[in-house]
């Protein structure tokens, strides 16, 4: 590892520990030439997950798009950004564990709806209305009625 201060190539590892979610290792290093310390992170290299869109196009998976969709669905709801970030991490991990190289955008939408259903029903219906492209109030009402039936209200 090259020292970011003096450029020397030799260092020693002073401390190693896993990060909070155990997805990487944080290492404190000390340069053997200038004695300054710096931190590096070690991650498992994964093959990037590709998302297959409805029209057949493929694009790299974007964690930011997942979080953005959750934020929009939960706008003006009592769901913290921290909670949405935790859900995004869970979704990302679920996708990496269950899909090798490709996943359809439809499958991602269904997974997001599963998590939204658990945290906020209004956010769930909001997301469903955009994701399932409701054409009119009847489709919206149908989804709301299904939600009420699942809750045993109707």
Structure description:
- It is elongated, with a radius of gyration of 22 Å.
- The chain has 154 residues and is of the alpha+beta class.
- β4 and β5 (58-60) form a beta hairpin.
- The protein starts with 10 loop residues before the first strand and ends with a helix.
- It has five helices and six strands.
- 45% of the residues lie in helices and 21% in strands.
- It has two domains: 11-43; 50-150.
- α4 (121-131) runs antiparallel to α5.
- The model has no long low-confidence stretch (mean pLDDT 87).
- The strands form two sheets. The protein has a three-stranded antiparallel beta sheet, with no helix packed on it. Strands 5-4-6 form a three-stranded mixed beta sheet.
Map the helices and strands.
Layout: E1 11-18, E2 24-31, E3 37-43, E4 50-52, E5 58-60, H1 63-73, H2 81-98, E6 102-104, H3 105-119, H4 121-131, H5 137-150
Parallel strand pairs: 4-6
Antiparallel strand pairs: 1-2, 2-3, 4-5
Strand order of the largest sheet: 1-2-3
What is the helix tally? Answer: 5
Share in β-strands: 15-25%
Characterize the largest beta sheet: strand count, sense, and whether it forms a barrel: 3 strands, antiparallel
Rg from alpha-carbon coordinates: 22 Å
In total, the number of domains comes to 2
Helix content: 40-55%
The structure class reads: alpha+beta
Q: Can you count the beta strands?
A: 6
**End-to-end gap:** 63 Å
Point out poorly predicted stretches. none
Q: Helices and strands, in N-to-C order? A: EEEEEHHEHHH
Shape: elongated
| Average predicted confidence as pLDDT | 87
